[in-house]
Amino acid sequence: MARSVPLFVSLNHQLVALQTLQLLHHQQQGEDARACHPHYKLDQASPPLSTGMYGPALHEMGLGLDAARSSRAQEQEEGRRAASKTSEEEEECGSQALSNPGEPRPKDSRQLGPARPGTLTQIAVHSMLSRIVDSTSQLVSVEQTLLLPLFQEHPFPIHLKDSVEFRNICSHMALQLEGQRFDRDLHAAHQCLRLIVEKLIDSLTVFPSDLYAIARASLRQILQNLPEM
């Protein structure tokens, strides 16, 4: 078991990052649903997947997520107020149209038409976050099911600092508003995750057995979901 300590520690950092990413993704899904359905509640969405965690990493993650939740709670309240105001404006516009059917209706910026740049940007950001969540989950699964047994048999290089950096990036991202800082953190998380996977593949190339080949193939599949930017 002592042989597996480096990989266990690296995996723990990645688990913290995964839980943080799942929380962010869960909240974004709730925000998207509220945009379409003003009475939607966040707890109606599927909760983030639970992942087995242990040791100091669990306590550390709890502190980080408490801060993230506190920050996000304020955003959610502001979002609900904005949604309520928008609904009232739409009702007022509808009443005016019914009372004056002959008058031309004013153009509404929310009418169908070319998508606004902000909307397209949000779609791209949400798509990237979803890919990172999926890829991180796949990486954790590959490490738990394939790499840990191989590492116990023949230890290979583990670059712990990359997993620490990935966790820190995700924790910082959870405290940001959706904007340039959030986007920069998301891009950094994408690049860091790619680096972790690429280094694991390199570490396994010196072992010719079929089991290592299967592990490398699984890691390459993860890279396919994380195209270079």
UniProtKB/TrEMBL annotation:
The lineage of its organism: Eukaryota, Metazoa, Chordata, Craniata, Vertebrata. This is Leukemia-associated protein 7. Pfam families: DLEU7. It comes from the Eukaryota. InterPro entries: DLEU7. Residues 72-81 have a biased composition (Basic and acidic residues). Residues 68-116 are annotated as: Disordered.
